[in-house]
Amino acid sequence: MLRKVQWRWRQVLPKDRQGEVERHGGPDAWLNELNEPDVSPADAAHLANLLVDEIVSFLTDWRPPPQARKVTVSALGQQLRQAAEQNAAAFSEEAAKFSSVPAIYIRRIIEGLTIVVRNNAAVDWHGIPALTRTLVSRVGPTGNEGESHDADWSWACKAAIELISVGLQLGKEGIGFGLEAEVQAPVISFYESSSPADSESFEENYRRQVYYAATSTSRGAALELCIQLIFWLSKNVRKDPGNALAVLPEIKSILDVEIARSGADGRIPRAVIGRHLGWLSYFSADFLKANAPSFFETSDARLRNAVWLSHVQMGAGPLSWLATEMSDCYRQEIRRLAENVPGADRDHLTEKFTHYLVILYIVDALPEDVGAQFWNDAPVEARRTAMWFLGTQLARPEEEIRLRAQSYWDRRLLAASELSAQRTVFQKEIGAIGQFYYQQGLDTDWLMQQTIAASNAGYAPGQTFHLVDRIAKFSASLPHRAVETISTPIKNRHLEMMELGARSKDPANNPRRRPVHRRHAGRRQCGRRHQFPGSRWRYELPRPAAECDGIAAIGMPTSAWRK
Questions:
Q1: Global pTM value
Q2: Could you tell me the residue ranges of all domains in the chain?
Q3: With contact defined as beta carbons under 8 Å apart, do 409 and 439 qualify?
Q4: What's the average model confidence in pLDDT over 335-360?
Q5: Are 561 and 551 in contact (CB under 8 A)?
Q6: Which of 96, 124, 166, 206 has the most crowded Cβ, counting Cβ within 10 A?
Q7: Burial of 83 (0-12, 13-18, 19+ CB in 10 A)
Q8: Helices (H), 179-317
């Protein structure tokens, strides 16, 4: 307030006082100063056009001027990252020369090169390992004083691990084959210098998500790099890629050591390995088979949950050939489907877990007792989620998959049709058939037959508005089945006419498909032409009355019904 008053009355102040007020600016000057962005002493385009030696000299000698508070190290680092993106060839070829600059600049350069690699653009992988090797031995404080500088080398090391990781994940499209020795050396060195206790708030993060918490530590990140090295090498082992681990004895020794860890430290390697069980089952199946009891049958719930939760939440799918060994984990997860599980998001875990069960059933690998336990004991919401996913499998083009998916549905509908079945318990699961109509590629005749069968068993389909739209399209080739699919739920009182108001994008140009006004849609009147009071829409219904509801609702031409 004082500053505002002084600014407005500054003309009456003494000259010296007036100059002092104007030097500090108007009432909003302090706010504008806070919102003013930081400024870099050199922009990205300029840096990208300099020689690497010139950039190194500039980064080594430059210091923020004390009189210009907005010219900062962090702003220069951002421009340096963009320069590395723009001239990745030069920055990667002579990457080793940047090893002498402050840590924040090394990190920004590596981040820029990571973006380039992630976008499948070309870099010189011969130069990058030389830079990453220099970071392995650097631990503790960086020695760079001043605002915005990295306090220690951990951030730069993690950036280097991510760069190598991205290159390895791309397989033959990433790091070129022939650099096995150059790449393997820093990978092993990063692991040897790693620690399981260098992540802030690890326990808190672990309670939210086990895999991300594990890889936030240098030990977890380095171990994942070792697994990705096996994957990358498997692309180059042309004769026997399934035994890629066999030609990497150092990596196998690392995995053996990590699996042998117990207690709290043993959670980190298991969380990382659980994420990559699919990869390990391909290029080191014997290794995985030998360690399966240690992963899935151990009495230590902490270690078992680490690999299991990571596998379900982050994995690419279930391992059918290990379903028997993992059956205890599946049974335990079914028992706790209604509980919150530390280390996992309950909704996401339930969704992925039910997907795994459906896939195992389709490939005929789901233990019968596990399937029975899920169908009998799992919460209805979980069984409905499984049914929603089943719809995607019913639309698969492979006949074998579709037939197995149909058998899953048949079993559930049969169980729901028993006299002792509680209709309220099965309604959400069987009613999920309404979601099947969203899928493109389903056998339309089979889908409508099952809708009729479910209605006759006492179950209404969900998502009826989309159901009506889809059946209207099916009616062109299967008119009688389409009429029966609509009329059966109506006769069974599973659908109301007001839910089935026929819709048309342009009713004036499509007189056969005029929508029924919802306000009066419940009136059951059949005739050649009728206009509801107060409605501007007319409808046309054919006889007989028993089937007029279905035909009008789906907007099917009367000529199709008369065929």
A1: 0.79
A2: 1-36, 42-193, 463-563
A3: no
A4: 92
A5: yes
A6: 206
A7: buried
A8: 180-192, 202-208, 210-215, 218-234, 249-259, 267-275, 277-283, 285-296, 301-314
